[in-house]
C-alpha cells in the first residue's frame, strides 16, 4: 500500500508491524500479543488522523494512486456491462467510458471518467481529461438511455476537461454547454456521483442530475487548488491555503446545498477498502433509482431545473 505524506505515522507503524511479523516467523516465536497491540495502535492512529483531515489532505486522498476508478466500480457493482464507443463524429475518447449495465437487477446507462492505473493507461486515458468527443459520446449514450427508458448513472473523476488547442478547435466549450442543456431536460432519472476529483466544466459536462452526490473524500469546485494558487499568488506554494479558501470538500458542498448527499467512505479512504466502498455505492444507486422512478418524468425535470436555478447568489436588475 502507498502512503501519502500526512499518513507517515501510519506508515511507520505498519513498517514496525511487518518487521514484528517477519521476526516472529523467522524465529518461530509467538508474538501474537505484541502484534495485536500494534494493530490496535494502527487502527487508533488511523481513526484519529482521518477524523481531522484538512481540505488539502482530502484533495490528496481523492488523487490517491490506489483509489478506485470508474472501471473498478463497473467490475464490482455491475452484473453485466456492455461498453459503447465513439461520438459518431470524430473519435472514441478513452477518457470517458460508458455503456449499458445491469446493477442488482436494474438496467442503467453507466458513464464515467477513467484516469488509468499505470503510466501507459494514463496516457491512453489522457489522465481522465476528456476532449469534446468524450462529452459528445456521453451525450449520445444519454440519449440512447432516454430512448429505451433507462436511468443514467455518471461517475465523475477528472482534473478538468482537456485544455489543449485541438480540443478548443473542436468545440470544447460548446460540447460541455450542450450537455448541460440536454441533461437538465432528460426524461429518465439521472444520478451523478463524484468518486474522485470534480474539477470545473470537465466535471459539469456529465454532472447535471436529479441527484448530485459526493464520496466523502472527494472535491468539487471550479478550479484545482494548484491552479488557483498559481493565479492568485503566482506560485503553487499556496495550494494548501487555496484548498481551504475554495471550500471544496464534500462537507462544504453539502452545506452550500450544491450536492444532495455525501456517501461515507471506509476508514482510511476508498482505496483502503475498495470492495466495501463499491458495495456502498451500489446500495446508494439502487435505492436512489427506486426513489426517483416513482416521480413522473415531467415532475423530475421541473425539480431538476428548480434545483440548479436556485444555486448561487444573484440579483436581477
Which key phrases capture this entry?
single chain; 317 residues; alpha/beta; 2-enoyl-CoA Hydratase, Chain A, domain 1; 2 domains; eight-stranded mixed sheet; 14 helices; globular
Beta-strand percent range: 15-25%
Write down the overall mean pLDDT. Answer: 95
Q: What would you give as the CATH superfamily of the largest domain?
A: 2-enoyl-CoA Hydratase, Chain A, domain 1
Query: Which range best describes the helical content: under 10%, 10-25%, 25-40%, 40-55%, 55-70% or over 70%?
Result: 40-55%
CATH topology of the largest domain: 2-enoyl-CoA Hydratase, Chain A, domain 1
What's the story with the biggest beta sheet? 8 strands, mixed
| Rg over alpha carbons | 21 Å
Q: What structural class should be given to the helix and strand makeup?
A: alpha/beta
Q: Please tally the β strands and state the result.
A: 8
The CATH class assignment of the largest domain is: Alpha Beta
Number of domains: 2
- Shape call: globular
Helix-strand pattern: HHHHEEEHHEHHEHEEHHHEHH
End-to-end separation in angstroms reads 56 Å
Low-confidence segments, given as residue ranges, are: none
Second rung of CATH, namely the architecture of the largest domain: Alpha-Beta Complex
Please give the count of helices. Answer: 14
Describe the overall structure.
- With 317 residues, the chain is an alpha/beta fold.
- It folds into 2 domains: 48 residues; 251 residues, 2-enoyl-CoA Hydratase, Chain A, domain 1 (Alpha-Beta Complex).
- The chain has 14 helices and 8 strands.
- Strands 1, 2, 3, 4, 5, 6, 7 and 8 form an 8-stranded mixed β-sheet that branches.
- β2 and β3 form a beta hairpin.
- α6 packs parallel to α8 and α10 crosses α11.
- The radius of gyration is 21 Å and the shape is globular.
